[in-house]
Design brief:
Belongs to the TRAFAC class translation factor GTPase superfamily. Classic translation factor GTPase family. IF-2 subfamily. With about 725 residues, this protein is an alpha+beta fold. The protein has 18 helices and 37 strands. The N terminus is likely disordered.
Length: about 725
């Protein structure tokens, strides 16, 4: 094995070692021999005019240009070498694995400076954080691609800027499209789902609406205990029905508390929760009752109550039958497949027709047990407490049959019933826990709002550390107002909660901070000549605000357009007053009281401010304000007629001498002139005389002279006299 290094053959070894490829450099390089002459020549070119003193300040700055050029050339040379490397299978060499150990590696590879390692690690961390930041920004802007790139999913009202990002269409194109359709908007203007769907379809995409609540629940289930034993929970019983059919009176009879006296106008205007304990056959049962409003405007509240219900009580007045909100509630019950009981109330009244009610319910496939159906029908009188006990027994039997359960060991899930701002405590969310256990300190997410729970307050005002399933609590700790009806979930940590909130598409809008307000244009029209009633609306809760906007949108606006400049939750502020002054808007408050300082400012700036506690009164006032903007219109009522007998001049003016043939002629009334049954003139009767005396009116069978702006009278012209009768203003 002599001259091994010069051998061109591969050795045949008895104990073969690891064989790898050896690179074959295709380039040739000449190495210049360095001698004394070249060194002297190079040294002569170096600038020797340097200070002999070594200044510490110049220590890191002292770099010669030649050194820089050498480094540049060296880098270029290395890059060139890397590009020219080609692997050749003929070039092989032997690696001794016995020598391939940690010591040899340390000897061959010199350790790098700690400073360099730290710098690289820092750069790496920066790159990773930048990547995460880009991902977070992309998620927060909803730039994630859907499974179907042509399908645009929107969960609620959205502003133009966010919609343009979803469509990948410039904001100007959307604004131009709306402008051509008579709708003037800005980049931060919010459009509702109906308008958003039209925009999406116009740009060739498919529009779909999705509830983010279920996706939140799915995400939360990843961090919950899935295998805990289920336990029985209290049933949630929602009372539904038309306004004034006795829902609150029924609960008053059950709870033995005068609830009606606590409500303005005796009507329910929000979802209210009551905990009830019942005793039957020495057993105690606990129920949770939800009282829902029956007025048309509170549709969203009824839907929220139906969604979280375990059992639905449909209350129908025996003397009134099925009404619009009754039918609406029936649709919710059937769609959600809720176990339900039909409660026919006011059976003590006269002129009741229970068989007719059952016939109307049969049209929706709701049949009583005696007719082969599966729905219990209970006839009661809530006022006289007749048969209420039978109803409660039926509720207990139905709940035992359904066996409502929950997992108290998992992270909590539930629904936001209402949210509002408190002066001292901040954001408060009325919520009901549907599953799991909610604890103080939990990180909770509801739509685009998240927070760490600071306090939990029960229905009775007691602070607690946790809330079990089917418990109503007030949650303190949200970063902003969560949307009424939003699903909430508990998340493992605050970072994950923040990320989940950012990825949510629940509506907030850039011009709406933390869901506290929204800016809908109730009606869009291409008729720019329509008069507008500008409004600034303040309400106590999001649910109430939603109901007011919904009720206003139902008002006909063919003659006067309602334009909501701003609508938000909370008390009236100085900013609201400034906005009302600059926009010449009407200030409306619902279920709030204006402070004395606000009243002073409204008088100072001559701003109209009205507050209401009843939605009926609010709507009546808005309608009245709209009617005041409509111009007066008149009908013409015939009061008499006359025939021209003669025509003569008086003071160079033509006078028609007439005989009143029917009714009477009145001065300054509206007249129409006909000749041979052809209409030729209409105007005002300026002067009416008998002989030379001015009179106000001339009755039938009397002669008179009339003058007006018409001077082409002829004999036998027919004059018809009309009164202006003011039309009743309508919207």
């Amino acid at each position: 094995m002599t001259n091994i290094h010069n051998s061109d053959q591969v050795l045949q070894l008895k104990v073969p070692k690891l064989i790898i490829f050896l690179t074959n450099n295709k380039y040739s390089s000449k190495i210049d021999i360095i001698n004394d002459s070249t060194v002297k020549e190079n040294l002569s070119q170096i600038n020797t005019n340097l200070s002999s003193k070594f200044d510490k300040k110049q220590k890191n700055v002292f770099i010669h240009n030649d050194d820089l050029n050498i480094k540049k050339n060296k880098n270029k040379f290395l890059k060139k070498n890397r590009k020219s490397i080609i692997l050749d299978q003929e070039d092989l060499f032997e690696v001794n694995s016995d020598r391939l150990n940690d010591d040899s590696i340390e000897n061959v590879i010199k350790p790098k400076s700690n400073k360099i390692n730290k710098q690289k690690k820092k750069n790496k961390d920066v790159n990773v954080s930048n990547d995460n930041l880009d991902a977070n920004l992309s998620n927060s802007l909803n730039l994630k691609d859907d499974h179907d790139s042509n399908n645009i999913v929107i969960q609620g009202p959205i502003n133009i800027k966010d919609l343009s990002l979803k469509l990948r269409v410039h904001e100007a194109e959307i604004i131009t499209y709306l402008f051509l359709n008579g709708i003037s908007v800005t980049v931060n203007e919010v459009v509702n789902l109906s308008m958003a769907s039209k925009i999406v379809e116009h740009f060739g995409f498919k529009f779909s609406f999705n509830d983010v609540g279920q996706s939140l629940i799915n995400n939360s289930q990843k961090v919950t205990k899935e295998y805990a034993l289920l336990s029985t929970r209290r049933p949630i019983v929602t009372v539904l029905g038309h306004v004034d059919h006795g829902k609150t009176t029924l609960l008053n009879s059950i709870i033995k508390n005068n609830l009606i006296d606590k409500e303005y106008g005796g009507i329910t205007q929000s979802v209210k929760v009551y905990d009830v304990k019942l005793t039957d056959n020495f057993s105690t049962y606990e129920l949770v009752f939800l009282d829902t409003p029956g007025h048309e405007a509170f549709k969203s509240m009824r839907l929220r109550g139906a969604k979280i219900a375990d059992i639905a009580l449909l209350v129908v007045a025996a003397d009134d039958g099925l009404k619009p909100q009754t039918i609406e509630s029936i649709k919710y019950i059937l769609h959600l497949k809720l176990p339900h009981i039909i409660v026919i109330n006011k059976v003590d009244k006269k002129d009741i027709n229970i068989p007719k009610i059952k016939e109307e319910l049969a049209e929706y496939d709701i049949l009583p047990l005696e007719c082969g159906g599966d729905t219990p029908f209970i006839e009661i009188s809530a006022t006289l407490n007749i048969n209420v006990d039978s109803l409660l027994k039926e509720i207990i039997q139905l709940s035992e049959k359904q066996k409502f359960t929950a997992n108290p060991d998992k992270f909590a899930e539930g629904s936001i019933l209402e949210s509002f701002l408190d002066k001292k405590r901040g954001v408060i969310a009325n919520a009901i826990v549907q599953d799991g256990t909610l604890k103080v300190g939990n990180c909770v997410v509801a739509g685009q709002v998240y927070g760490k729970i600071k306090n939990l307050i029960t229905y009775g005002g007691e602070k607690v550390k946790y809330a079990c399933p089917s418990t109503f609590v007030q949650i303190l700790g949200f970063s902003g107002l969560p949307l009424s009806g939003a699903s909430f979930v508990v998340i493992n940590d605050e970072k994950e909660a923040r990320q989940l909130a950012l990825n949510s598409n629940d509506y907030t809008g850039n011009n709406i901070k933390n869901n506290t307000s929204f800016n809908p244009q109730l009606v869009s029209t291409s008729d720019k000549l329509l008069k507008q009633l500008k409004l600034i609306i303040k309400s106590d809760t999001q649910g109430s605000l939603e109901a007011v906007i919904n009720a206003l949108s139902k008002i006909s606006q063919s003659k006067v357009q309602l334009y909501v400049i701003n609508a938000s939750v909370g008390n009236i502020s100085n900013t609201d007053i400034e906005l009302a002054f600059t926009s010449n808007a009407l200030m409306i408050g619902f279920n709030i009281e204006a402070l004395s300082s606000i009243n002073y400012l409204t008088k100072k700036y001559d701003i109209t401010l009205r507050t209401f506690n009843l939605i009926y009164d609010l709507l009546d006032y808005i309608k009245s304000s709209m009617l005041s903007l409509i111009d007066v219109e008149y009908n013409l009522a015939l009061v008499g007629s006359a025939v021209v007998q003669n025509v003569f001049f008086v003071s160079k003016r033509l006078v028609a001498g007439c005989l009143v043939s029917e009714g009477k002629l009145k001065k300054m009334s509206h007249i129409k002139v006909y000749r041979n049954n052809v209409f030729i003139y209409e105007g005002l009767l300026n002067s009416l005389k008998i002989m030379k005396n001015d009179v106000e009116e001339v009755v039938s069978k009397y002669e008179c002279g009339i003058m007006c702006d018409y001077n082409s009278w002829e004999k036998n012209d027919l004059i018809k006299c009309y009164d202006f009768v003011e039309k009743e203003k309508t919207l």
